[in-house]
């Protein structure tokens, strides 16, 4: 059966995710910055959380880990910062929920050990704080070259890959995208759509690789240098 994916807003603007595989009756939590909303969402569906996966060490993605009392899978490079990690993963590892397999991609820049989880057969990727809808994560522990390389790898994925990212930042990202590419009609159109969704209190995530290819100024940057210039501009942009 298809992997079920439930979006759970946590903290002020984070998204954590519940993944459920009905065949094996297993449930994974990704990036529990706060456990309580995830426990409630799982209970409401009669699911029991069996694993926790983290994309990177920041507290807004891991603070709820211990509450679940289940095995934690997280980047090996960041295990010491995360605390109790049962399986440290690196580039190329495969992790699974039931028969659904995800490949671990190391995508440094926001943090050095940051990973993404790519379910190639399911056409789904969890990008944490690297690729956002219309944006990318801040470069706290890496360089524009790192993040540009990540974007190049994401660009190889099929357009119909659904992208689940770690924050609801799309409206401010979209304002910046319009500023950077004022003549890009797809960007302007998407920002109108995002504004309408947010006015109704609705999420703008997930997105797709295809939409990011059309409207994301970091995904669309034509060099590491250009990505770096855009990242610096965005850090102080007040749209
Ligand atoms: Zn982060
Ligand atoms: Fe975050």
What does this structure look like?
The chain is 33% helix and 26% strand. It starts with a strand and ends with a helix. It has a single domain, classed as Ribonuclease Z/Hydroxyacylglutathione hydrolase-like (Metallo-beta-lactamase, Chain A), CATH 3.60.15. The protein has 239 residues and is of the alpha/beta class. The radius of gyration is 17 Å and the shape is globular. The model has no long low-confidence stretch (mean pLDDT 98). It is built from 9 helices and 14 strands. The structure holds zinc ion (ZN) and fe (iii) ion (FE).
Specify Rg, calculated over alpha carbons: 17 Å
| Model regions low in confidence, pLDDT < 50 over at least 5 residues | none
What is the overall silhouette?
Answer: globular
Domains (count): 1
Indicate the CATH topology: Metallo-beta-lactamase, Chain A
- Small molecules in complex: zinc ion, fe (iii) ion
Structural class: alpha/beta
Order of strands in the sheet with most strands: 1-2-3-4-5-6
Count of helical segments?
Answer: 9
pLDDT averaged over residues: 98
The CATH top-level class label: Alpha Beta
**DSSP summary, beta strand count:** 14
In terms of DSSP E residues, the strand content is: 25-35%
Straight-line distance between termini: 43 Å
- Characterize the biggest β-sheet: 6 strands, mixed
Could you say what the CATH architecture is?
Answer: 4-Layer Sandwich
């Amino acid at each position: 059966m298809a992997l079920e994916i439930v979006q759970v807003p946590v903290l002020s603007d984070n998204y954590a995710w519940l993944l459920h595989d009905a065949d094996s009756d297993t449930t994974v939590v990704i990036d529990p910055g706060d456990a309580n909303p995830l426990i409630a969402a799982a209970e409401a569906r009669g699911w029991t959380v069996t694993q926790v996966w983290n994309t990177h060490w920041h507290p807004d993605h891991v603070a709820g880990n211990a509450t679940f009392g289940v095995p934690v899978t997280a980047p090996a490079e960041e295990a010491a910062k995360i605390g109790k990690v049962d399986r440290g993963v690196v580039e190329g590892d495969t992790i699974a929920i039931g028969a659904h397999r995800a490949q671990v991609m190391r995508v440094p820049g926001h943090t050095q050990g940051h990973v993404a989880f790519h379910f190639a057969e399911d056409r789904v990727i969890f990008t944490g704080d690297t690729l956002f809808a219309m944006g990318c994560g801040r470069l706290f522990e890496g360089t524009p070259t790192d993040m540009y390389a990540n974007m190049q790898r994401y660009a190889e994925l099929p357009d119909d890959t659904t992208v689940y990212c770690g924050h609801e930042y799309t409206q401010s990202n979209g304002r910046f995208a319009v500023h950077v590419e004022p003549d890009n009609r797809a960007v302007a159109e998407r920002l109108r759509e995002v504004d309408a969704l947010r006015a109704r209190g609705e999420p703008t995530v997930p997105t797709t690789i295809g939409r990011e290819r059309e409207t994301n100024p970091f995904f669309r940057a034509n060099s590491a240098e250009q990505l770096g210039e855009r990242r610096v501009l965005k850090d102080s942009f007040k749209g």
